[in-house]
Amino acid sequence: MPAGTLPGQTSGLLVYIGSGYETVTKDQITALSDMGVRDYVLVIGNQKFRYGDSAGQKQIINDCATAMDTFWKNWLASGTGRKVWVGVPLLDSTKTAYDNASAFIGVYKNYIDKMMEVAISNGANKSNFCGFYYTMEAVQPLDTVVDPSNPTATQTVKLMSDVSTYIRSLNKQFMWCPYYGFGANAKNIIKNLGIIANRTNIFDHILIQPAYYFHAGDNCDARTITAVKKSLSIRDDFNINGAVVDLDYKPVAGGRASNATAIIGAVMEMDSNVLNSKSSLYQQYEDAFIDLSNTHTSDFVFYANTTSLILSLSGMRDRIKKFYEYV
């Protein structure tokens, strides 16, 4: 996506399909669309690419292709025409995988090629198959210190960049939904996120999880919600702005560079506890962000558990519909 252009607002939901998850049906896709969901951001399976495991990598690609084929067929039958972002598998959470991350580019290219083949065979086109979603939620390992003058010196960032280059060569966009920092490595996580968002052209969309809803008791600062809001890209005369800020609300790594491409949005977080013990936590998100959603000013995605759970609980459905009411 060329710098200086703004596509339509992202009003999305993380949707889980494939191995370890459920099949999302035509009727469920329609129901989500009726709630105002315009972007299905797909997490496909719970398997991870392991270093040196070519047979396992091939099996994951085939499993994900099967799940994606089913989704596309149900998506087409729904007639909604909503946008789709296809998730890529995680790396195995080991030092060996992270230390050799850039060596995985071949298997990611194979995965992306297969997903393109499945999409095309089901009639997906550029307007509804937007691109790919990078499922790793932070720069790994978490104690890594990314060099702002040379981010790709970090292996996992090099992999991000190489995957991005390949995706864009196919005329697709690249999305990331990382979490804002919490826990022992909070400051480092925030800094690395800010460097990727503010100083690189790796991603077209970065939607940040404040993390406070799920981790308020895990050394997660209450300022994360405000920090994410202050980081957002705001649509104004078709200029892309927005820069990730730290917990003192100062732009990370000197702010947004001229080559930065990411539109910065936010992830709305909830689960079934929004109906009881976490109602007030969710309300802080809604109070902070709903005006920006309703006026189509910024981009959002809901992280809210499985599709079947969301659709089974009116309290979850109603909150998403309220947030996307004017979409």
Write a structural description.
The chain is an alpha/beta fold. It has a single domain, classed as TIM Barrel (Alpha-Beta Barrel). Helices cover 39% and strands 15% of the residues. It has helices at 26-34, 54-78, 95-99, 105-121, 155-169, 186-199, 212-215, 224-231, 279-294, 307-312, 314-323; strands at residues 11-17, 39-44, 48-49, 83-88, 90-91, 129-134, 173-176, 205-208, 263-269, 300-303. The strands form 2 sheets. It has an 8-stranded parallel β-barrel with strand order 1-2-4-6-7-8-9-10, surrounded by 5 helices. It is globular and about 50 Å long. The protein starts with 10 loop residues before the first strand and ends with a helix.
Keywords:
39% helix, 327 residues, globular, TIM Barrel, two-stranded parallel ribbon, 10 strands, alpha/beta, 8-stranded parallel beta barrel
* Count of beta strands: 10
From the spread of the alpha carbons, the general shape counts as globular
| Helix run count | 11
Give the strand order of the largest sheet, numbering strands 1, 2, ... along the chain: 1-2-4-6-7-8-9-10
Our estimate of the beta-strand percent is 5-15%
Short description:
The chain has one domain: Glycosidases (TIM Barrel, Alpha-Beta Barrel). It has eleven helices and ten strands. The strands form two sheets. The protein has an eight-stranded parallel β-barrel, surrounded by five helices. The protein has a two-stranded parallel sheet with strand order 3-5.
